[in-house]
Amino acid sequence: MSVPRRTVARSVRALGVVSASAALALSTAGSAAACTIDEFSARAECVGDKGVITVTDVDPAGIPATVSVFLENNGADVKKVGEQVVKGSPEGTTITFEEDWEPNAEYRIHVKAVPHVDEDIKPNLVTPATACEKGEEKPPASKPVPTPSDAAPSPAEEAGSPTPSASGSGSTAPADTTNNVPSPAGESNLAETGANSHTGLIVGIAAALVAVGGGAVFLGMRRRGAKSED
């Protein structure tokens, strides 16, 4: 029994339609599972008093992607904050970049997962208008003010102040200061040469005796001459 050609042609057509539908469905499913830029999001947050930038990947396929963060100024990159690799998940995988961002600063976040995505997250990330709150700095502890009792002892106190000795047999007599009193002018030289002693009186008596003796000799010689003339 032969099959009509028309029936065979219809069967081939039906099989082609089924195959095309299956291929389209697989293509659609593959496109849905592929990594896209819409699966990435970025935020500027505070951890304590430090600023951070977080990027979250919700790619259910878990395709590794390289995330780069750049600080922007007037549409140009000022600096590269950092670069990390993230592997997404249906629950979302978050990576953190430490960046002490300024209020209203702009950052460009680029995602690259070859061959699926190679573009920036749109729009650029703009940080909040309020910076992270800094912790209050504690003032340095003040040094205690020393009281008079804590003050350092004076040199006299360290050496020990002399205590007055008790009056009695153990006391020492004060030194005689009579010789230390200066004598009036004119007497000091006499005292030093001995002129204030009896030397002058003795010299005067000796001179008088010499004069008397000389006069006696002179008188005796005159008497002898008178006698010889007689």
UniProtKB/TrEMBL annotation:
Q: Where is the composition biased (Low complexity)?
A: 148-178
Q: Where is this region: Disordered?
A: 131-192
Q: Which UniProt keywords apply?
A: Membrane, Signal, Transmembrane, Transmembrane helix
Q: Which residues form the signal peptide?
A: 1-34
Note whether Membrane occurs among the keywords: yes
Annotated TM spans: 201-221
Protein's name according to its UniProt entry: LPXTG cell wall anchor domain-containing protein
